[in-house]
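Q: Hi! First time asking for a complex rather than a single chain. Here are the components, and I think there are two in total. Is that enough to go on?
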Amino acid sequence: AQKITQTQPGMFVQEKEAVTLDCTYDTSDPSYGLFWYKQPSSGEMIFLIYQGSYDQQNATEGRYSLNFQKARKSANLVISASQLGDSAMYFCAMREISGTYKYIFGTGTRLKVLA
Amino acid sequence: DGGITQSPKYLFRKEGQNVTLSCEQNLNHDAMYWYRQDPGQGLRLIYYSQIVNDFQKGDIAEGYSVSREKKESFPLTVTSAQKNPTAFYLCASIQTGTGNEKLFFGSGTQLSVL
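A: Yes, that's all I need. Here is the structure of the assembled complex.
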């Protein structure tokens, strides 16, 4: 069964510094997708970045990059040059591509950016 | 503008009462989802539907029911069998088969027990 684990309930980072949010996953499906979403205090879910299991390069979207280490089954989110507006909950998620369209999420990491 | 509309934003349930949360999308998406969010537990999948008139249980389906009679609508009923319904409920959708894996979310419904 697919599983997502986020072991950092909360993180602090100084403004303008980089921060890494950890995510490990478990699946027996060789084809899967990994995602990161941001949830500000308003409750909306904002899609940040996607990585396919067969993608050769790590995904990047602006200040967000996904450090994909397939052998270690990790998909860490790196946020560069942190901004105060990055303070939010961050969720890692996964879908097994050869299965149904079932998406599962981790428990999340609350990031606080300090001025 | 296309999107997902959840209503109401806040909902209160009395003991022994069934309540229904609405989720409507005008994105023409095939698949729709209901998630429950509790503090410290992330998003847990309640039910999902890949096509009209079909749906599958997620990880925490007990005490909930859904229907998918129309492509654009996926209402969630929280029954009296759900003993701890207080949570934030999120509806999501996606167009299957396109390779675009981005889930679209509604703005959520906060359900509380009186």
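A: The mean pLDDT of chain B is 93. Let me know if you'd like any chain examined more closely.
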